[in-house]
């Protein structure tokens, strides 16, 4: 049984926006908000997965805005609307994405909603970036969707070898050849700046080890911020997801020990879909069975946040 939520039929204002990261870099995004007659008491900052442009999440963001919840989606530097004119040689690391870009998105939303509750929603590896922002404490509630740490050993067995070859062989080789990772040519999302791609390629151990590409001190500080982050979280993962497996999601959550997390493992049948996988939650066919669960969670008041959601099996 799916929680019933009465959706509002608000007109959605959808606007492209530019705003500064915390270090001043110009970022692009889209702001989805209900019309001016709606007073929002909560607003969402959305963190994309690695190499996935923010436009991919537009249908889901629009759905929330139709129900009275403003949403900011944005592209990390080097991706989508935040891509420079020349990607080859563009210097950026995951620490920049977390500390500066995510931090800038939270700051931009806070200025517009100084008294509202800010909610962080993330997909895939975007959860670690969200937790690593220096102002992540502005967020008190979270929705973490298909979250994992990118360790290939946590993938479903049939995917481990091919993905290890792709991430740790093909990716660094092509990145050094082109000066960035040409993911578009391979049908793997948006192109990645070289620093981001080489950091991902170096992710070969179960633990997030510091060093290599980037600044170890900044990486360490980001992980400390994750460990200190407080709030309540709805964690959604799917039994047919090859990447955010149960082991992968639990490993991710181990970096957020102070979050009060409710982890829901959902089958495709429970979602009313033939398959969900790592990306299916954001397809429009998920609107009737999956999106209302998140909306129901977001519309709860402070006294209800920790109560389990009805109609889904916990694992």
Description:
The chain has helices at residues 58-66, 94-112, 126-131, 157-178, 194-201, 216-228, 246-253, 291-298; strands at 12-20, 26-34, 42-47, 71-74, 117-123, 139-145, 180-181, 192-193, 231-238, 259-266. The chain has an eight-stranded mixed sheet, sandwiched between helices. Strands 7-8 form a two-stranded antiparallel sheet. Residues 1-8 and 310-315 have low confidence and may be disordered. It has a single domain (12-156, 215-298), classed as 3-Layer(aba) Sandwich (Rossmann fold), CATH 3.40.50. Helix 3 (126-131) links the parallel strand 5 (117-123) and strand 6 (139-145). 30% of the residues lie in helices and 20% in strands. With 315 residues, it is of the alpha/beta class.
Structural key phrases:
Rossmann fold; two-stranded antiparallel ribbon; 30% helix
How many E-type strands? 10
The rough form would be described as: globular
CATH H level, superfamily name? Alpha/Beta hydrolase fold, catalytic domain
CATH architecture annotation: 3-Layer(aba) Sandwich
Structural class: alpha/beta
Q: Rg to the nearest angstrom? A: 18 Å
Average predicted confidence as pLDDT: 91
Low-pLDDT residue spans: 1-8, 310-315
Domain module tally: 1
- End-to-end separation in angstroms reads 17 Å
The CATH class is Alpha Beta
- Briefly note the CATH topology name: Rossmann fold
Taken in chain order, the helices and strands follow as: EEEHEHEHEHEEHHEHEH
User: Strand count, sense and closure of the main sheet?
Assistant: 8 strands, mixed
């Amino acid at each position: 049984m799916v929680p019933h939520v009465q959706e509002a039929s608000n007109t959605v204002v959808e606007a492209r926006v530019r705003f500064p990261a915390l270090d001043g870099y110009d970022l692009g995004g889209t702001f989805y908000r209900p019309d001016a007659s709606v007073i929002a008491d909560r607003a969402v900052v959305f963190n994309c997965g690695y190499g996935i442009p923010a436009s991919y999440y537009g249908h889901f963001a629009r759905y929330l805005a139709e129900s009275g919840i403003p949403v900011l989606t944005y592209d990390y530097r080097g991706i989508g609307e935040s891509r420079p004119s020349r990607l080859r040689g563009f210097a950026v690391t995951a620490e920049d994405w977390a500390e500066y870009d995510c931090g800038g998105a939270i700051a931009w939303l806070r200025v517009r909603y100084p008294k509202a509750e800010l909610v962080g929603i993330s997909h895939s590896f975007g959860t670690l970036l969200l937790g690593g922002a220096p102002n992540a404490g502005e967020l008190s509630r979270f929705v973490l969707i298909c979250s994992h740490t990118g360790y290939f050993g946590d993938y479903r067995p049939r995917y481990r070898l091919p993905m290890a070859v792709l991430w740790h062989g093909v990716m660094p080789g092509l990145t050094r050849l082109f000066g960035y990772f040409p993911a578009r040519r391979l049908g793997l999302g948006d192109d990645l700046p070289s620093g981001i791609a080489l950091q991902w390629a170096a992710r070969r151990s179960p633990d997030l080890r510091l060093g290599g590409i980037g600044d170890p001190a900044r990486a360490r500080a980001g992980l400390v911020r994750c460990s200190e982050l407080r709030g309540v979280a709805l964690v959604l993962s799917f039994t047919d997801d090859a990447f955010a497996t149960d082991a992968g999601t639990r490993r991710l959550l181990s970096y957020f020990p102070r979050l009060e997390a409710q982890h829901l493992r959902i089958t495709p049948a429970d979602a009313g879909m033939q398959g969900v996988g790592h990306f299916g939650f954001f397809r429009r066919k998920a609107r009737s069975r999956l999106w209302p669960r998140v909306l129901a969670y977001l519309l709860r008041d402070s006294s209800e946040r920790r109560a389990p959601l009805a109609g889904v099996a916990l694992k």
